[in-house]
What does this fold into?
Amino acid sequence: MHELRIVSIRSLADSRRMNTRLTTLMQAITDRRDDLIALTQDLIRIPTLNPPGDNYREICEYLDKRLRRSGFETELIRAHGTPGDCDVYPRWNIVARRTGAHPGDCVHFNSHTDVVDVGRGWTVDPFGGALIDGKIYGRGACDMKGGLAASIIAAEAFIATYPDFAGAIEISGTADEESGGYGGVAYLAEKGYFDPARVQHVIIPEPLNKDRVCLGHRGGWWAEIETFGEIAHGSMPFLGDCAVRHMGAVINEFEEKLYPAMAARHTDMPVVPQGARSSTMNINAIHGGQAEQLKDSTALPSHCVPDSCRIVIDRRFLVEETLDQVRDEVTGLLDNLKLTRPRFDYALHELNHVLPSMTDRDAPIAQSIAAQIQNVLGKPAEFVASPGTYDQKHIDRIGKLKNCVAYGPGILELAHKPDEYIGVDDMIDSAQVMARSLAQILKTEPDPA
It folds into this structure.
């Protein structure tokens, strides 16, 4: 009885000490609000446009200086020979590691540093990082420099509160996610940086909303289709063969057969938004005939029947579909046209493909993030999957690391839009979720309540 009482007293003391440290941790993040804002603004003001791959070295050097100051050991890694890498636009990445006081697991926060083209329709400077009504505006604010900043603040606050933590924390800033991630996470995975012997838990702070745990994404298949014709004088099209009309027949087949078939398929993956729970296809581009005139040219086009027309398709598919089925469905329609349409011929060139990726919702990192969403936000976490792919595909397929989720601040629908922004309160909340997950995984004491 006496021994039981001693154990109970110790357990109560442990619980009180744990709650005190968690309160300190939460406050440490709140106290870093101004630092979080400034860090996010600094990152936005480095215009890392992809394509072509601007300022990758500059943003890695900025992160290197910041993370070294916080006690991390850093590596700057160029992805030599990857798509787009060249002396003018080298593909630079940074991996930073802070080792704890005791052996344990490694938690890795991975964020991409590249951003997409600005586009039209902005009412603020896209690289100004303006703070307006609690929101920071700029290209990449939501996708995903706000998430990168939140993960850094979470890690720094955790280290300050738990200097005796067990295991290790890694933070990476990687290139080219917006163009497939081959000069970033794929390259690092090939070099062993996501080997499960080195890293056990990965959090990717993509903007999937602060109350969601993203378990994975749909697959993607990208291809260029070209139809052929015969050039002739535009006043006598009957002497030629119009490749654009042949492409019209292709698009008509898609409209009448492929799109209805895709719309009828539904997945058990928790993909958001609802429309993405079916198979989808976007026609990214179309061009036929002569090359387009330069914008400042006043020359008129010559009169020719086009002998070539090309489209690029972006086919997103479900975990219930196979890549071969996706390919065969499109080529089957094209082959049928070849049999039924006079003079029809085509070529298909695959540009890229990505298989669906899904982490089990019972995986340790998924459960940890979900528990801390409940603790910080006071509501159950929603488990979702992404309509588009992100760098989890490389961590899964190349790194063979399954314990990976996307979790970060930001509204998914704002990604790639004009006047993109990130809410400061959302970043604070997400940083607290991330930090509490670190406290749960890299623990030297009982689980946080």
Notes: Residues 16-217+356-441 form a domain with the Aminopeptidase fold (CATH 3.40.630.10). The first strand starts at residue 73 and ends at 78.
